[in-house]
Here is the input.
Amino acid sequence: MPPFDPFLHDADLTLLSTHPNYYAIHPQDIQLPAQPWLDLVTSSELGGRPPLAIDETIIKLPSEQGMSPKKRHEVAVMAAYIVKLVKNLPEIPFIVDVGAGQGYLTRALKHNLPQSNILALDADVAQSEGARKWENRVLRLGESDPQIDHKTILITTDNLLAIIDEWVSEKQPSERASSSPVPVLLIGLHACGSLTPDILRAYLSSSRKQDRHSLWYSSAVVAVGCCYNLMRPGDFPLSKRYSFHPPLPVAAYHLAAQVPSTWLDAAGNALPSVKLSIRKVVWRALLGRLLEQATSNTTENSPTPDNTVNKSATVPARWNRRPEAWESQANTSSTTARNAAEDDSSTGQTNNHTRLGRLSDAVYKSWSSFVDAASKKLGITFPPYVSDLPIGHEPDEPQRISTHFNGTNVDFQSLEKRLEVLHVKRCLLGPKVEETILNDRMEWFKEELNADQDGIDSMVELDRVNLFNQSLGSARNVAIVVAPQGCLPKAQG
Ligand SMILES: C[S@@+](CC[C@H](N)C(=O)[O-])C[C@H]1O[C@@H](n2cnc3c(N)ncnc32)[C@H](O)[C@@H]1O
Here is the structure.
């Protein structure tokens, strides 16, 4: 086992910067750094680490309706962990669920801690409304049990404290207003983008003596991150330790979702779903290269193909990951950031270009059915030879026909295989990318605590806990947890 190396190095960043699309357009030999990336991949602590053994039978779910087995697992385990933590804390906290979505976790906690005050926050009105509907259907609260409170609001670094201030002051009976501050537990299940750093910032600010809020303080945090591609650019790196780290290429944030350790079956063969997702990336790259051979079916009067992207009205759009664009995006409102992102052709969708968007899995059964479906969706026609290219054949079906393409002979079968290798190598770095981001958040939090020893209770425990079982499909399974010393739940047995 190579020694643990917390950083991503130039060679890894080069690999993360490459993209199958790029290599399909420029078919020079794909130069892949052979070393030391393999060492780096195998030194990752996240991939395949078994989850903390939490006895989820200590809680009951109010309903399992609407949840996939993966979601059920995540909600049950995280609720069990939080209920155990709450019981260990010196005082029962108010709970704030940040990015609560449809509220599965919120309801699971309410069902098991019916007396608790819980605030569910989400930027998307459809999510908050959905959560309320579920509550009315499945939660049976006693008369004295407080309802779950909801607020639909876009959380930023600046407003989380004020949102909690307002809520706590509404909840506090007037006679308690002058009594000691209430503890608040901040939680987030798959808290997108910058929500986890925002939760940690709220913890730190609410705990600092000099700006301690009179109504409440944060007693603990349990936050599982997600969608690192939605992070505000300034949120990586956060720590001094990682401050020299070059910005990660845009693909890295997307690839952080990969869990290569779960790709193989017991016999060591790639699972069908894995083969399919690799095929999707590679075929789209090859199609991109062939697009210049296509002719448009649309005339001035014909309708444009319908592939409207369904975007939430309020959730922040993807930030541009090119460092030179950051300055203009920094300090903008989410609306401005969203507009900037929509102008960014990295989405592929512009006034002149149409996105291929999602195609059904069934069309990937053969190259010709994929070309057919893509042609219809994009409103274009390829010359007949494109459907007949030797793409998508098993290795034991040798085809190896070079196709005269754009003045050169291209061996598409070999190009397909090389692109597969490229994509898999990039995916293998996924756990390392997530680990790097998580380590940076942990380091930053420790640095802030240390810098503030006089202000913040130094008897704080910080940990990184693998909560969910990745083999059940839970790619993002690591919680950053903070609590007073001795309060963090331990594994069973
Ligand atoms: C991945 S979902 C997780 C939902 C829920 N916690 C769960 O696990 O089912 C993330 C949620 O966070 C919300 N969200 C993302 N960024 C937000 C922000 N800046 N402010 C408020 N909500 C946000 C999204 O609308 C979405 O419902």
About this structure: The chain has a mean pLDDT of 82.
